Amino acid sequence: MQPVLAGGPSQRDEIQVTITRQDLERDYLRQVELREWSTAAQQARTTADDARGACDGIKDGKWGFHTERESRPWWQVDLGRQYLVESIVVYNRCDTVASRSARLQVLISPDGGQWTQVYQHDGSVFYGFTDGRPLRITLNKLPARFVRAQLPDTEYLHLDEVEVYAEENGEVRNVALYKAADQSSLSMWSRWHPEGAPHARCYPVQKTVERGLALAEELLQFASLDPEAGRIIGEEMEKLRQIAAEARSPEAADQNVTRELYLRACLVSRRIALLNPLLNFESLVFVKRKPPVFHHMSDQHYGWWCRPDGGLYILEGWKSEAPRLRCLTSSLPSGSVIRPDISYDGKRILFTYARYYPELHKHPNKLDKNNIPEDAFYHVYEVNVDGTELRRLTYGKFDDIDARYLPDGRIVFLSTRRGVATQVLPDVNQVTTAPQPDCYVRCGGGPERPVAIYTLHVMNGDGSNIRPISAFESFEWHPCVDFSGRILYARWDYVDRHNQPFMGLWSTLPDGTGVQAVYGNFTWNPLSVFEARPVPGSHKIVFTASAHHSITGGSLVLLDPRRGTDDEAPLTRLTPEVCFPESEGWPAHYYANPYPLSEKFFLVSWSDKPLADHGGQMDDAGPGLYLYDAFGNLHLIYQDPEIGCECPLPLAPRPRPPAVASESQALARDTATCVIADVYAGMPTVARAAVKKLRIVGLPVKTHPTMNYPELGLTHEDPGKFVLGTVPVEPDGSAYFRVPAGISVFFQALDERGMALRTMRSAVYFQPGQTASCIGCHESRQMAPPSKTIAALRKEPQPIQPGPVGSWPLDYNELVQPVLDRHCVRCHNPSGEGKNWDLSAGQSWETLVRYGKPSLADLVLEGYRRGRSLPGEGLAARAPLISLLVKGHYQVALQAEDWERLIIWMDLYGQKRGYFDDRQYQELVNLREQLRGVLVGMADAAP
Fold this sequence. Notes:
Acts as a defensive agent. Recognizes blood group fucosylated oligosaccharides including A, B, H and Lewis B-type antigens. Does not recognize Lewis A antigen and has low affinity for monovalent haptens. By secondary structure, this protein is an alpha+beta fold. Helices cover about 15% and strands about 25% of the residues.
């Protein structure tokens, strides 16, 4: 057991909190401003949502609407009736792309069907907001109900504001203001704009009454359990109906009257909400925390960015008007506390804490851990709920975060102590508290901002026996134990694809076996599936749809995995008024930390401050604690005007999931076996018997901290790679083979020429002694295993046949250049006949990746942007160089190994190399020797 820290609960740790009616009313007014009236940058759902932005009276030089790039894009306004239009004034977008509107056309119509062009701009660039010189078009009282602006060619159309002037009620005015508008298409830059004038906005009395009544109807189902509560709910429902009746009276036309009715309805709804039998706990655990100095999904969990004044708190009597607040961490120096967890018996709390050092975030060299105090890193702590026995569980200069109790008494958590090893086994001897190098994300960071990878680890309840259970090569986030004992978590999986969108939901068993995608591995929106928690009494999961370039926060979503594993179909947006951050815009308010009580009731944190990207500024006050329900009611529990309140948890015992037995075998030191039933499952367009082998490709971690450096290939954020080799595929599509444990790998299905027919875009790893199986290649997660004999299982598991020199470690100069030196350089050199295509050492890589149309570089970037591999679209099979050589190129006659070398290189994204430094190169050489027992043909493959 780790030593207990000095200090404990004292009288000064307890304060009385008063939540007044004025506090609640102030919060409800802020809610209506943001949840009902907000003009935040939310993604438009319809073309009309975006089009309203060009007739909303807001002129700021930005775009009021934004179409897709298309042929003849248009925007139009319906004036409501026919006017004699005197003039049209157009305010352009006032930045470097203002020239896109230089050939703007204007058309008018009496009915929206028959159009007459009345103006064509001369090609000069006009602005409006910045220079006070908008485009003014005189029409001399032409009759029109509809006015359209469009472009004559293929381009984006985006204008700031369009004003249409005509006489109305004896004066000439802008008759387009706040009128209905539409446009030809939506783009990723399209935004939602509110309807009507700001002064015409009213308080949503009817909507609030409907939400309250829906909540009451739901709770009346439990009236038999508490007849007195049922009686009170009935009385409150009558009050809501009376408020609705008053809202229909003539007096309600006064905005002050509707304001008071709205507030009354909110308070009645709150009284109903607090009668929910699911709220059968008297205390809440939560943390106070200021946002980090640098807010990014990765960096939010590094101690050097933390802010002061955070703490772990219990709110007792939280449903009363005067709850009591108790701090459990006042004995710790000022710092940051994040993401607590409560033991299954409700007696202990895990949390993560880092001490605040005022100038540490400015240090230009955080790589040197001598510059960073140990307690400036986040570490795992535990405390009893009465504040006694506060103890620290983890040590060392690593960030240890997101600790969660496992059913067997151990703890799962995230840690940067994974290290730089390519092979990571669940071995306590591999973990140390001594300073050691970190591995890093490929697409971000530098000495002033090292972005070290954190992955899943486990330890005993007293902090001993720390060991990794993940060999993944990139980030993992937010573990949570579901009701079956599995661990849900998010991971960032961007193997040979765009780095931004793929933070999907995964699950694993507590020993690191059984890793599988749950949702979002090929989903572009939302960007991050964070804070997943299983819903009691349901197979559904709630999560926070979060941004890439910000802290965790956004829109709350209910996921039904039975309806699919990607895209929108399995999702129900619980908070549709908040866009998915970054992919749909930047919301002016946001949710986080959902704790489900059922599919319809949640504890959450909600912030009335904007969610800023990593270049913006977050407000210290941040979120407060709330009750939220699926009907749309949001009721304040507690907030601190100086600091954010996050992660509300019921302080009560909870069911303990079953402890899952380990599938890993400690005696099998570094090997596992893998069974694939039928590679064609998931590849219906690939002819049966076309797949002959599987290529297994390893992924070493990035060891250099600087963003996109060194450049290994064409995307500038390529993963490290080395080819372990190939294994055979039987005629029925099955395969059974041995594979090294503890190494992140992906597979490629190869045809008879050794060319990839399909490539995994994510990674998998295996634990020692594990037997892993899958049905096919990219098959649906809903697919059942085939009830047939698997031919590969009639044999022993096959060893891996290594590839040629230069494939492990992957190195273009060792793999490809020898082929060019033998067959090509005599002509293709600076002074030879083929000097226009120089293939001599030092120049050949650049020559080959740019050859042909589409070139290998074109194909690589196409696949990178698409984010998934399509059956039959391997890179080597489509590369112009292969086509040239197959047709015949002078006297060049390649041997089988020559072909293999070229094909491997092209199928692996044409990288220059697959290692990040010389030390890693040597580690991979040593690993080949160490894994000799898993491989065959080592004599031929020795470097």
